[in-house]
Amino acid sequence: MPVYEYDKDYPFAAFITNLGKYNEGALVGEWVKFPTTHEELQKVFERIGIGAKDDFGNPYEEWFITDYDCYVGNLYDKLGEYENLDELNYLASKLDDMSRDEYNHFLAAMEVSDHTGSIRELINLTENMDCYDVYPDIEDHDDLGRYYIEEMGAMEVPEYLRNYIDYEAYGRDVAMEEGGDFTEFGYVRDTGDRFVEVYDGNRENIPEEYRVMSRANDGELSQADKLDMATDLAFDLDEFFRQHDPQYAAEFPATQEQKEKLCNAMLDGKFASIEERLEVISHAAPEDFHSRMEELKDAVGYEEFLDMDTEALREAIQNPDTSHADEMLAFAEQAEREYVAELSGQMAAEPPKMTVLVVEPMKEPYVKQIDSGLRALQAEVIGDIAAAYPFADPVALVVNDEGKLIGLDLNRSLRDDHGEIYDIVAGTFLVVGLGAEDFTSLPLDMIQKYTEHFKRPELFASINGQIVSVPVEPDNPLRTAEMTLEDDYGMIDGVINNGRRGEEQEKVAENTEKKSSIMERLADAKKECADRKPSEKAEHHKKPPELGDL
User: Fold this and answer.
1) Residues 98-133 pLDDT 10s
2) Could you state, in order of their start, the residue ranges of all structural domains in the chain?
3) DSSP of 131-171, one letter per residue?
4) Residue among 95, 91, 88, 72 nearest 14 (CA)
5) 329 exposed, middle or buried (CB, 10 Å; 0-12, 13-18, 19+)?
């Protein structure tokens, strides 16, 4: 039996709180010592009102952990408010089953192990104690050096030279080479053996004797179990998206609120938008995400043909000019067809998808999944496509081939190595990845890079015969451009260069033109060309495109 800190007979306790009551302003909870049992936990839930109904007849179903009392080294810093109770009980039971020496070995391993970032990793650490050697009697580098030289025979040292050996320096070199460290339990080092993952994070793989969340007799999960599963998955998904998807973090800055929305969406059977976002960065996703989502789908009775945003669909039907109603209706019809085909055993394979970055005029870029193929690309750029390869990265710009000819809005500039504009893309365009023979999904690092590259929309104006680009704010581009280009700051009125100074320049230009006729100016130009001598070496400089080139 381990000896926990302060002579406690349990490794840690958690204060489990009724979340609904907490949101109403009442702290209703109770301390639970781990390890515990299913029966004890259900009594706690009953006492704190989990399952009871509020004044409106809605049951209190959600809970969270307000605080911990922990008596196991630095374990307290690794425990969170939404930990899985089965996992907590699993870890506490494994610790309680240890002998005193095994427990001290575990504490020492925690000091140097890389596998202490979550409850799952700590559970696996209890199963991999042989990956760490602990030497209780070695307290410093001098002890370590003497141990290796005198007891391990690391080098032959004659008796008469032993007083001249710098054991401390030798021990320091050994510790640096082994990556070992000194703890209150002695010297600890990683043996280099393979760390085996016994528990993969899937709750179904937790041994039955460690589970404390209830299950109905017919094999279905209880409402509390479903809530627990959804809460855990929502927490992990939110953390993962914030680390790997900058657009997600910007779109949902309120962390706790978004976790609750994810949880409620999955309990309501709404997985499509979550899976779509996850698919974009699936290469970095933990392997168990898919299995956990499938498990939760089974628990909530998921039906794919019902998995759509009904509010967005209703809004789209009512306002077809400002929405993607046709796309959503097509999706609903396709979902219904797939559902019918699935029932008849004739489910067709879905067309492959491609993840692209869409860049529209006067908007920030956004990520979108489209069907692979020519028609989908043409639909995005609204016409025939052309490809440009202005960057060294394996990416292409898919643009409207006739965007400038048909007068599409100017979108973003392309610049050379000196920052000079050499072309302007007209109309919406896509940033796509390049495969061996065709366009492919844009990788995550390229999504992040070109989202930042094309982040600021641009306005274009002709000044002194040259095109200039003005970065603008998406919400008020005209004012931004006018503040940048206006020559009379008393006339910020939506019309560029219409003040007195503009009028004076027009008058000067008008008077200048009146001084000579066209024939006279042509004659002067001809004489000037005849007198000009060609330079020995012409200099070539790339000039910004003129308005007539667009």
Assistant:
1) 999 899 999 999 988 888 889 999 999 999 999 999
2) 5-136+185-190, 214-302, 310-343, 353-471
3) GEEEETT--SHHHHHHIIIIIS-SS---GGGGGG--HHHHH
4) 88
5) middle
Tokens, residue 265: 């969406």
Q: In whole angstroms, how far apart are CA 253 and each of 190, 240, 242, 261, 445?
A: 40, 14, 9, 13, 21
> Do residues 373 and 352 make contact, with C-beta atoms less than 8 angstroms apart?
no
Tokens of 233: 């998955």
Residues present in the chain in total? 550
Q: State the Cα–Cα distance between residues 192 and 194, nearest whole angstrom.
A: 7
Yes or no: is domain 5-136+185-190 CATH 3.20.20.80?
Answer: no
pLDDT digits (tens, 9 = 90+) for 9-19: 999 999 999 99
The token pair that represents 53 in the structure block: 């109904």
CB 180 within 8 A of CB 189: yes
CB 218 within 8 A of CB 161: no
Please report where in the chains the tokens 């280099």 appear, as a residue: 192
What's the predicted TM-score (pTM) here?
0.44
- Torsion-angle region of residue 465: left (phi > 0), alpha (psi -120 to 50) or beta? left
Give 255-278 as a 3 state SS string. Answer: HHHHHHHHHHHHHCCCCHHHHHHH
H helices of 284-395, in order, are 288-300, 310-318, 325-343, 374-381
Q: What gap in Å lies between CA 261 and CA 267, rounded to an integer?
A: 10
Instruction: Give which of 107, 65, 101, 60 is closest to 83, Cα–Cα.
Output: 65
What DSSP state is assigned to residue 373? S
Q: Residue 47's CB: how many other CB atoms inside 10 A?
A: 12
Tokens for 544?
């910004």
